[in-house]
Structure of Gas vesicle protein GvpO:
Amino acid sequence: MMSAAEAAKHAVEHVTAMTGRRAESVVGVERTEDGWRISVEVVETHRIPDSADILALYDTEVDGEGDLVAYRRARRYPRGRVERD
C-alpha cells in the first residue's frame, strides 16, 4: 500500500487533470479498505484581490495503485470563510 503522501500527490494530479484547475492544498487524508480518501481544495474562480477567490473542496478516492476511483465536488465557498461547528 502506498503512503498517505503518495496517495495525496496522485489525488492532486487527478483533480487537476479532471477539473483543469490548480489545487490549493490537501485538507484531508483517510485510509480505506481499498486505498485512500483524499480531500483536495481547489481555486475555482480567481478574483482580485485573492481574498475574494472562490474555492471548492473535492472528495476523491484513489486505489492502492494511485488510480482515481471516484471524485466529486463536495462544496464551494469564498476564501477565508470560517466554518463553525
In short: The radius of gyration is 13 Å. The beta strands are 23-31, 35-45, 54-63, 68-78. DSSP finds one helix and four strands in the chain.
